[in-house]
Amino acid sequence: MTERLYYEDAHMRTFTARVASCAPGKHGFDVVLDRTCFYPEGGGQAGDTGLLGGVRVTDTHERDGEVVHYCESPLEIGAEVAGEIDWDARFERMQLHSGEHILSGLAHKHFGYENVGFHMGADFVTIDFNGMLDDAQLAMLEREANEAVWQDLPVEVTYPSPEELKTIPYRSKKELTGQVRIVTIPGYDICACCGTHVSRTGEIGPIRIFSCVKFHDGVRLEILCGRRAHEYVGRLIAENRKNSALLSAKPAETSAAVQRTLDELAAQKLRAGQLETKLFARMAEALPKDGDALLFEEGLTPDGVRRLADAVMQGRSGRAAVFAGTDAGGYAYAIGQVSGDLRGLTRELNACLNGRGGGKPGFVQGNVRAKRAEIEAFWREKG
Questions:
Q1: Are residues 296 and 275 in the same domain?
Q2: Is 317:290 a contact under the CB 8 Å cutoff?
């Protein structure tokens, strides 16, 4: 059985050990040592990477009670090797894991919610709770979590006896058997956990909640702690600084500036739509009312194509067709006919001109991947 040095000292970075076994595996060579400070994947925390005897360890897992190191090259059985974990990655995970415990403990304390899912992803740590949280509650959780950091509390690890365990109100996602490891952050959380943690809460650094979305019967939070929270907030600040310059607004007032810009754009869009409607009416009035009408226009949105076709078809006995686009990019179309049935024509058009679309009997919309000359030839044939 591998001696697990990371439980004796989660801050241990280097160690020496003897190679107990080495065999080819799916991920290079599976190496088992008599002792290790490489943490194997488990409890939502990724396995450690690093070096063993100068050989790269790409991942660490637990198998049949042993810690298995995935190595790029073989190691001699019985040899003594020096090990070194990738400390920056490990410490980040310790910060994230301990921060998650504080937030989960607070959600349980204030709302009775259980942490039903936890994952350390490449971008964020996700926590799933079996209840809903509003903005005020999220702000309260984040504030109190950071207060725990500022207090620099000890993170205590104990191995209570079965009798002692019965008296401890600890959190756990499942029924546990055998020796249970309890991680306690006084006043904030008591949880059964196999992961590595900081020694004091002050090591965690800032705890930030970045998003909260409905997930199953509760919510999913995206959080970051420590170095990763600091770096991500730094990127957000840099991005906001760029936006403030573009908007000619103070960094703390960019959202108000964005809202003003959106309001101005909405007003301009409304005005443009009104002018476009007048233009479409005049274009329709200028066309002969007898027979079919085929128009090609540039720069129209699909909605503009629809509204122009609708204007042209009014008071017309034949069909009104509007195409907008280019030979290179294809054309959006709308075809209308008062009291007409255009469904058969639309099927033929789509088949002949590599198109897609449909609609009601008297009005259809879609797009085609064809050249203008091909559209005109089809229209002459079906006219």
A1: no
A2: yes
Q: How far is CA 322 from CA 272, 281, 297, 298, in A?
A: 19, 14, 7, 10
How many domains are there within the chain? 4
- What's the CATH number where 74 sits? 2.40.30.130
115-125 b/e (C-beta count within 10 Å ≥ 16 → b)? bbbbebeeebb
Domain match, 116 and 218 both: yes
Alpha helices in the chain (DSSP H): 5-8, 87-111, 135-150, 162-165, 226-247, 254-286, 302-313, 343-352, 372-382
Residue 69 bridge partners (DSSP):
31, 60
Q: Are residues 210 and 121 in the same domain?
A: yes
pLDDT of residue 1: 85
260-277 pLDDT, tens per residue?
999 999 999 999 999 999
Torsional class of 159: left (φ above 0), alpha (ψ -120 to 50), beta (otherwise): beta
How large is the C-alpha radius of gyration of the chain? Answer: 33
DSSP E strands in 163-230: the ranges are 182-185, 189-192, 207-215, 218-225
Amino acid, single-letter form, for residue 145: A
Instruction: Report pLDDT for 197.
Output: 97
pLDDT tens readout for residues 282-320: 999 999 888 899 999 988 999 999 999 999 999 888 999
Same domain, 81 and 30: yes
What are the tens digits of pLDDT across the range 169-195?
A: 999 877 777 889 999 999 999 999 999
The whole-angstrom separation of Cα 369 and Cα 346 is 14
Same domain membership, residue 198 and residue 99 = yes
**Containing structural domain, residue 104:** 91-242
Whether residue 347 sits in one domain with residue 306: yes
Question: What pLDDT is stored for residue 195 in this prediction?
Answer: 94
- What pLDDT score does 175 carry? 74
Q: Do 100 and 201 fall into the same domain?
A: yes
pLDDT beneath 70, residues of the chain: 383
Q: Give the phi and the psi of residue 23 in degrees, each rounded to 5.
A: -145, 150
